[in-house]
């Protein structure tokens, strides 16, 4: 992402899909809060390939409000893609994300702004202690939050809350893809933004339409958790994982085969009955272990070559220069 200097106090990034009923009320609510607090702001609405009249409503609203911007995808790419494009386009010193279904309250914006601007947090994640979602949604969410806390070391209650606030530098330094929007705090920590906090926020019942998320998001979320854990630990040094596993497996297989050979020689030396090594299943297990170990080692070596040659420049984040 191209890092640009902020020109406004706040950018509100709102990904949406088929939310035509809620958009006028949401935009009016945000505008009222901004005027009451004398914030300079922009609202970036990202239409993620809606099939209803969401884009027509965005066009109409933007004519009456110069602070409102719209981005429309040709098809549905998902929330992560919408957030990534919104982060690229935003110009605010503080960036706040929220959902378009009115379940996130714009009344939380001033406090979120203060936590980033005054108290110096890099990221604040909302925590909906009391939720108005069915148990089929809340129970899997609790499981994922528990697993993410254990694997990431970031102790937030609700990683998937759409209401979050970020420093400008943070959103310009990360890339969100796949279904990784659930793990933005993990990505931020990986990028070096470690002052991460949370704020209890009000969760409102859905006023219009239905939820756009199905059961498959939980399967995708689990796979993305494994992916982000692997990438964060070994993305820049694959040899540390594959080389280690390969070496361990090769050594186990080698010494197992060596033991078989030594046992065969001992039996021959003392005229003891001994089967052919190739008749022993353990010999093939040892051989297979050495082959798999070699493949793991080569995978790590090739991974190192790919990471070294994938870019002509490094991606290390420099905080300050003199």
> Terminal Cα separation, in Å?
23 Å
The major pleated sheet works out as:
7 strands, mixed
**Rg:** 27 Å
The number of distinct β-strands equals 7
Q: Could you write a compact summary of the structure shown?
A:
48% of the residues lie in helices and 13% in strands.
Describe this structure in words.
This protein has 322 residues and is α/β, with parallel strands linked by helices. The protein has ten helices and seven strands. Strand 1, helix 1 and strand 2 form a beta-alpha-beta unit. The longest helix has 32 residues. The model has no long low-confidence stretch (mean pLDDT 85).
Blueprint of the fold:
Layout: E1 8-16, H1 23-36, E2 41-47, H2 54-64, E3 68-72, H3 79-89, E4 92-97, H4 109-117, E5 123-127, H5 135-152, E6 164-167, H6 168-171, H7 184-190, E7 196-200, H8 216-234, H9 238-269, H10 281-309
Parallel strand pairs: 1-2, 1-4, 2-3, 5-7
Antiparallel strand pairs: 4-6, 5-6
Key phrases:
Spore Coat Polysaccharide Biosynthesis Protein SpsA, Chain A, elongated, 322 residues
């Amino acid at each position: 992402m191209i890092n640009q200097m902020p020109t406004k106090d706040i950018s509100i990034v709102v990904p949406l899909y088929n939310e035509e009923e809620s958009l006028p009320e949401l935009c009016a609510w945000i505008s009222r809060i901004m005027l009451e607090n004398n914030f300079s702001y922009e609202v970036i609405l990202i239409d993620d390939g809606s099939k209803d009249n969401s884009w027509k409503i965005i066009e109409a609203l933007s004519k009456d409000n110069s602070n409102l911007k719209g981005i429309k995808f040709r098809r549905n790419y998902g929330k992560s893609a919408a957030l990534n494009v919104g982060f690229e386009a935003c110009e605010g010193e503080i960036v706040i994300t929220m959902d378009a279904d009115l379940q996130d309250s714009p009344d939380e914006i001033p406090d979120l702004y203060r936590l980033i601007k005054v108290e110096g947090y890099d990221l604040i994640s909302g925590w909906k202690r009391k939720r108005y979602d069915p148990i089929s949604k809340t129970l899997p969410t609790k499981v994922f939050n528990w697993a993410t806390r254990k694997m990431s070391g970031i102790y937030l209650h609700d990683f998937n809350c759409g209401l979050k606030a970020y420093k400008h530098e943070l959103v310009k330094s990360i890339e969100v893809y796949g279904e990784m929007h659930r793990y933005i705090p993990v990505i931020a920590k990986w990028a070096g933004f470690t002052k991460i906090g949370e704020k209890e926020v009000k969760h409102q019942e859905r006023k219009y339409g239905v939820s756009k998320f199905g059961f498959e998001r939980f399967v995708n979320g689990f796979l993305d958790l494994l992916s982000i854990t692997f990438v964060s630990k070994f993305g820049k040094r694959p040899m540390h994982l594959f080389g280690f596993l390969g070496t361990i497996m090769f050594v186990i297989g080698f010494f197992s085969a060596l033991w078989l050979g030594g046992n065969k020689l001992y039996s021959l030396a003392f005229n003891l009955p001994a089967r052919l090594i190739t008749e022993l299943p353990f010999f093939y297990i040892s051989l297979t272990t050495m082959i798999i170990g070699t493949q793991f080692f080569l995978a790590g070596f090739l991974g190192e070559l790919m990471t070294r040659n994938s870019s002509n420049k490094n991606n290390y984040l420099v905080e300050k220069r003199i």
